[in-house]
Design goal:
It is a single chain. This protein has 446 residues and is α/β, with parallel strands linked by helices. The strands form 4 sheets. Strands 2-3-4-1-5-6-7 form a 7-stranded mixed beta sheet, with helices on both faces. It has a 7-stranded mixed beta sheet with strand order 9-10-11-8-14-15-16, sandwiched between helices. A hairpin with a 2-residue loop joins strand 10 and strand 11. Helix 11 crosses helix 12. The chain is globular and about 65 Å long. The relative contact order is 0.09.
Length: 446
Amino acid sequence: MKPVIALVGRPNVGKSTLFNRLTKTRDAIVADFAGLTRDRHYGHGRQGKLEYIVIDTGGFEPDAGSGIYREMARQTRQAVAEADVVIFVVDARAGLSAQDHDIANYLRRLGKPCVLAGNKAEGMQGSAQLAEFYELGLGEVFPVSAAHGQGVRGLVEHALEPLPPPGDDDESEQDQDVIRLAVAGRPNVGKSTLINAWLGEERLVAFDLPGTTRDAITVPLERGGRKFELIDTAGLRRKGRVFEAIEKFSVVKTLQAIESAHVVLLLLDATQGVTDQDAHIAGYILESGRAVVVAINKWDAVDSYQRQELERSIETRLSFLKFASLHFISAQKRQGLAPLWTSLVQAYKAANRKMPTPVLTRVLLESVQFQAPKRSGSFRPKLRYAHQGGMNPPIIVIHGNSLEHVTDAYKRFLEGRFRKEFDLVGTPLRIEMKTSANPYADKGEG
């Protein structure tokens, strides 16, 4: 599973700037728990081939006793508990503060791996001003500038160095017929009810398989001769020889379950509509390249007007998941559950579909003949042939000339043609353009 880094520090030291630098985006998955005044932000980072999850937190006051600061401290403690390593961010220009000492004392008591980052340290390499932070007793101070990106790469390398490398998914390699299924969604959308309904129906649950971190659980089950592994996101507890699903929510566990799954069932609550957090989780599923099926739970609890509003909300807020099958269910009454399995298997097959080069090239050339790409100045892109570059998700690599001028709209047109030809329902499809080198580009005149 991906390692998890938590960013911790007092207010205004640049944690969010560092978060945006690490995730290369201003977007974040937000844990919008009801009643909390300051959220944790979750994002996806990459350094070379190594990928990780990063958590941004609010200003931390470990001893805050009431009000907003107490809630922010509770959020930060939860982030630290979920993390494998903590980056403690301090303000190199403002210098050491009493609050920095309080945070350092808290982190030392935990004994979790911790790296000290002196932010806003542009031009301060080797400065004596950084030396005072050694008082915190957390070892070396890494001078960085989150705003300019200076020193950030070395900081992350040092933070991740003591952690064991993420293991390969050996189980998937051993049994290609097992579909790893994750049920993702916000708290209280009905994940536990749905899981209980499934486990109650199948009666073929054999044993639990403890995961590598945070006691993640996978549950084998079987339906219609097809083997599945249900990856725990709602929380599964074994009581005697019976599994119970308990509703607990860890964003990190959800993100890691998405990463390790073949297919993700995104569960939404019909009574609450599509929230920001639903859209963020959906975006993470898409970014991870996982096959996905969308199910609207508690469909029986809303009237016809609410249903129309919900359908419109899905069309607008989850428009990027148009390729996914959509189901309306009631987990409590066990209505609409059977068709879910058909769509889950269909999405898995689509994500692993083999697409022969001759067929891909034929579809490409027919598409160009039907609608040629727009000319860009004196250049018109020439699309010559296509081949498959990967599976789960499917990747189609198109070769030709001047392909950098192919518009996003034309890529969407091609995607629609490929999806129709190969019945790619329920899986993201990635199209990559590779332009052939111009043999005359480097030759001078005469």
